[in-house]
Amino acid sequence: MSAKQVLYAFVIILVAAVSAISGAVASGVAIYSALNDQEPTSVVVEATPPAAQEITNQVLNISIDTAITQAVEKVGPTVVTVVGIIPGQTTFFGRMPDSPVSGSGVIISQEGHIITNNHVIEDTTEVSIILADGTEHPAEIIGADVFSDIAVLRMEGEVPAIAALGNSDSLKPGETVIAIGSPLGDFKNTVTVGVVSATERVLEVNQNYQMEGLIQTDAAINQGNSGGPLVNLAGEVIGINTLIVRGGNYGSAIAEGLGFAIPVNTVQAVASQLINNGYVSYPYMGIRWQWLTPQITARYNMPVEDGLYVSYVESGSPADQAGLIEGDIITQMGETILDEEHPFINILYSYSPGETTSLKVVRGEDTMDMEVTFGEYNIP
Question: Could you report the per-residue pLDDT of 44-99, keeping only the tens digit for each?
Fold first, then answer.
């Protein structure tokens, strides 16, 4: 048999095989339709050409990459590395050397105002910033707030760019976000990408205070990222990175991808007070107190499960004018019962100076209602 005859035979077999397969498919459809009393449905099998699929994938990749890179190009020049010096302490063995600390920050005004975390610059006596292009400038601390963990600096020299601030109230879980900062102080303007894992997270800072309304993200955040921006794909700052959780009180397992940021709406409210006044104004009662837990009250056979034990009342203070005395136990402020989920400091700071609210107070075996008008306390 010649080569030409072999080729013809192969073509005939191939055509027959394709026809058989097509006939089998058509027959199967016809039988299925008959069994279900339906008109036969024509079946068209189309395969996406590999070239078209490749083009589609390229378009998708280009779109995503462009959104991220454009956001980074927009915000990157506004991100700075914050470097501080904590003076050494004098000990029995002599004076210890000064300690350098570092974090991140973001420029928010033409006047050179920079947002960072309070814990980045806490206890420092000297602060400077390093821009994205590597140039270093002196900076001064305008104000800081320990409860929101927000601080405002002002840099000297020319401002390279100003970050656009977004609306953190509109964030949704699953939204792509970008973290920019200087992890470990050495890897300046590092970019990591993740999603908004959740919003309105609450983390207990200590027994008496919780940070509320935090943004949870799986974008990689490490030491040194503190104070840096969390950015959306529009290139807007929607949060200030503040902490990570590795395990600790949440069990023995080591966790990854648990980063948290302060919503930018909260940041703006705090920063405006720091810029305008140099401090944040909080309501003031004028008491010293001890937080009571169910374990403590059970041990000492107290008439409550949770509450605030008043150990001292300052003379002439709002608490004194309201009628509080040493030994009173405050169990409720306004409509909120004080318990493990509603710590005193969080409830107190939901009020403003000059505002009046009711208190439910246990004194001995008696329960009484009082009213207190808060004074003003400034955290320098």
Answer: 444 455 555 565 555 555 555 688 999 999 999 999 999 999 887 777 677 778 78
Residue among 235, 234, 221, 243 at smallest CA distance from 77: 235
Task: Tell me which DSSP letter residue 339 carries.
Answer: B
Structural domain spans, the chain: 74-155, 164-279, 281-379
Verify whether residue 226 is a known catalytic residue: yes
Domain 74-155 grouped into CATH 2.40.10.10 = yes
Q: With respect to CATH, is domain 281-379 assigned 1.20.272.10? A: no
pTM of the full predicted structure?
0.72
H or E segment and range at residue 238: strand 236-244
Exactly one of 104, 148, 197, 226 is catalytic; name it.
226
123 is catalytic: no
Q: Are 84 and 130 in contact (CB under 8 A)?
A: no
- DSSP state letter for 218: -
Tokens representing residue 185 in the block? 């102080």
| DSSP code of residue 181 | E
pLDDT tens figures, 122-147: 999 999 999 999 999 999 999 999 98
Quote the CA–CA distance of 283 and 307 in Å, as a whole number. 19
